[in-house]
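Example 4.3 (complexes with small molecules)
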Amino acid sequence: MSNEIPAADQTVIADLPRLLKLQKDAVLKDGAPNLALRRDRLARLSALLHDNRHKLADAMSQDFGNRARATSLLYDVLALLGSIAHTREHLHLWMQPDLHPDPAPGAYARVEYQPKGVVGVVSPWNFPVQLAIGPIVGILAAGNRSLLKPSELTPATSELQKELIAAAFDESELSVVTGGPAVGAAFTALAFDHMIFTGSTVVGKHVAHAAADNLVPVTLELGGKSPAIISHSADLEQAVSRLLTAKVLNSGQLCVSPDYTLVPEDKREAFVEIANRTIARVFPTQTDNADYTTIVNERHFNRINGLIEDARAKGAKIVPLVPAGEAPVDPATRRIAPTLVLDTQPGQQILEEEIFGPLLPVITYTTIDEAIAYVNARPRPLALYYFGKDALEERLVLDRTTSGGVTINDCISHLSDENLPFGGVGDSGQGHYHGVYGFRTFSHAKAVYRQADLVPAAALVSPPFSESNRAFLEQAFAAFAPK
Ligand code: NAD
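Answer. The structure with nicotinamide-adenine-dinucleotide bound is encoded below.
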């Protein structure tokens, strides 16, 4: 093993096969857990989140430098409590087999949802509790055991989750391992029964390769550039206010953050004016504002700042939405003001890579076909937002673009509804979870067919083939003759 791998990571890597075997042996020994045990596991998860919500918020703030407490409590903890409650309430229905009409007299066919076994979870830093525990809700609901590898970029939160989970769960039910990319690579090379990875598209490709070596089914929750189309028909005041409010959530460090916006040419000046007012209302101050989340680390701070400088150098107009007298970029606190980027040109990095920060390129268009073509010239996004009141145009956008999900007249809402599947498509991911969709993703849909005692057609379909078999086939094909 390379000396570049930290000693702590090497210890974790060496222990991974033991942990996986422990959980796989427990699957074989105990079989599928019943409803009561699944609900109990979910209740333990809920209690540890509820009772430690302030500790978790403190850890997230420590990891970020400053993270808005309300963001941590609302999106990382409360959202999960809602998801667990929804799952506990509906689980008895989801676990029922799907019965199918008798395929033949006396026969019986059904689909049973069986736990897959042991599911590996790899999670990112940006919502370090929601994206670590979120998949585990569906995994435990489906009766699996699980190993979690959270992000090394939020070490305090990851260590706290490890400690809390170890106190509430037996290692054979649910366990956390911590470490960096080397641990991630060794972890995803394990022969899990399913894996779910949330993170960047680049690392997602490595994970898909590693999973392929063991034929492990893998759900990939990736990122990308999610567009927001403002229609000619939009209520501009409402649209810009909602768009900007979503953009600044977690300072844009959000997978479904609107990455860029397409705005009718003749509405650009009004857009900028409303954006200024919206941010002034939401953040009357920024530098010392505890509600304003900082950029997670210096590398990302420099990366985002680099996108601003690259765009400026290549002709863009940079419009920071910052209170008078405050610096738009503050290296000491790692705060970057919400910033509009106008007059973008092809070749600017900000148009090529996922921004994952509080910058918003404003790209103008004249016809909706032009806006749709712009979206379709790029990889399929995780989310698409459409703001408008024109039903025909809305239908056109829905029919002619492909994205993981869509929210109309707002941002992000499709992600918070437990009744909707959440996932990407193409470069933004594959597979989905949340609610019943997570339960099904983490279950094996097993076809079960019980044959009748008497099979009327048996003599017609097995040798020795005779005239009656020929007549049977003729009759069967006649039923499918083109009309
Ligand atoms: P990342 O891909 O750098 O890291 C994610 C996880 O992968 C971490 O736990 C990391 O340790 C691990 N890892 C690193 N190298 C690995 C390897 N070679 N093999 C296996 N695992 C490895 O992503 P990030 O910077 O933590 O998160 C930001 C990205 O995640 C953005 O692209 C964002 O859009 C995306 N994201 C997607 C969703 C979603 O639900 N679709 C949610 C949040 C973030």
